[in-house]
């Protein structure tokens, strides 16, 4: 059987790049889809993944562009085969309290973090149901579960992502397609390193495990949900947060 094709949006990011490596090691043909604008990061990513011998390739994508996502999925299917695994890891923050938030800061975050999930799921779902196999994993956030000061936009998008996950899971369950979300807590990535040190130390003090999460710990969870024999898990949210938020 030829390799299953996996698309990871935000694929050259802190979590996305590690997810690409885990999926490639699990025998998938991986497409790291990300903004082409980040040329320095892209160069570093290419160097990091050179040893994967073509099992990880970069393709430019803006998840906020609805028509562009449809064209992207068609192009990938023609070049590599139909998309069997989609990981939506593209994300941005524009943090500020609601009193200071502009419509642009609200809109930018919703367009990338939530519309982006719709824009990518919409064109892959028909191909997955036709194959009778599909794995969609949406990278949400603990802050979508708890809310976070300065993140009304981000928390709304991330909570919305899980509502989307549960609804789509029901729609495609009979066709061998699972849809789940992973909600990372604070991880050791550029997104979190950008938080002022004092605030970051306060965050770490509130994580029972006593440290930030490592990208590989998120990637391992995604690989698990994307496995061929994970077909009975759907509509679920898997928290990977070091005990920062515990519920059931
Ligand atoms: N790092 C954490 O601690 C953490 C915690 C919870 C949730 N998350 C979520 O995990 C995901 C990955 O986060 P990360 O830490 O790797 O951040 P990151 O900034 O390193 O990576 C995000 C990637 O998304 C890409 N991206 C942004 N806008 C895009 C667009 N319009 N189209 C395509 N790609 C776009 C960026 O270029 C970047 O490579 C995000 O959705 C984030 O919200 C991260």
Keyword list:
seven-stranded parallel β-sheet; globular; 9 helices; 7 strands; binds nicotinamide-adenine-dinucleotide; alpha/beta; 248 residues; Rossmann fold; oxidoreductase; acetoacetyl-CoA reductase activity
CATH architecture, by name, is: 3-Layer(aba) Sandwich
Low-confidence stretches: none
Which percent range fits the helix content? 40-55%
CATH fold-type name = Rossmann fold
How can the largest sheet be summarized? 7 strands, parallel
Broad structural category: alpha/beta
**Between the first and last Cα atoms, what is the distance in angstroms?**
39 Å
Total beta strands: 7
Strand content: 15-25%
Characterize the overall form: globular
On the 0 to 100 scale, the average pLDDT is 97
The H-and-E topology, N to C, reads as EHEHEHEHEHHEHHHE
CATH level-1 class:
Alpha Beta
- Please compute the radius of gyration using only Cα atoms: 17 Å
Q: Supply the number of structural domains.
A: 1
InterPro entries: Acetoacetyl-CoA_reductase (IPR011283), KR_dom (IPR057326), NAD(P)-bd_dom_sf (IPR036291), Sc_DH/Rdtase_CS (IPR020904), SDR (IPR050259), SDR_fam (IPR002347)
GO biological process, one term: monocarboxylic acid metabolic process
Keywords: Oxidoreductase
Family: Belongs to the short-chain dehydrogenases/reductases (SDR) family.
């Amino acid at each position: 059987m030829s390799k299953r094709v996996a698309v990871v949006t935000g694929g050259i990011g802190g979590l996305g790049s590690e997810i690409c490596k885990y999926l490639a090691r699990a025998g998938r043909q991986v497409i790291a889809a990300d903004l082409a604008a980040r040329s320095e990061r892209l160069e570093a990513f290419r160097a990091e993944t050179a040893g994967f011998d073509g099992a990880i390739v970069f393709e430019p994508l803006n998840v906020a562009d609805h028509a562009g996502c449809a064209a992207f999925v068609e192009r990938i299917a023609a070049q590599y085969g139909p998309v069997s695994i989609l990981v939506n890891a593209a994300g941005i923050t524009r943090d500020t309290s609601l009193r200071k938030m502009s419509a642009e800061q609200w809109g930018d975050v919703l367009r990338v973090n939530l519309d982006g999930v719709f824009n990518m799921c919409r064109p892959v779902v028909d191909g997955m149901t036709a194959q009778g196999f599909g794995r969609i994993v949406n990278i949400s956030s603990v802050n979508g579960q708890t809310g976070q000061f300065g993140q009304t936009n981000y928390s709304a998008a991330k909570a919305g992502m899980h509502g989307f996950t549960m609804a789509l899971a029901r729609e495609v369950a009979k066709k061998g397609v699972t849809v789940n979300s992973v909600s990372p807590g604070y991880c050791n990535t550029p997104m979190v390193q950008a938080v002022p040190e004092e605030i970051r130390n306060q965050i770490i003090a509130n994580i029972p495990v006593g440290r930030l999460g490592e990208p590989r710990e998120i990637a391992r969870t995604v690989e698990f949900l994307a496995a061929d024999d994970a077909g009975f898990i759907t509509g679920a949210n898997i928290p990977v947060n070091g005990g920062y938020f515990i519920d059931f």
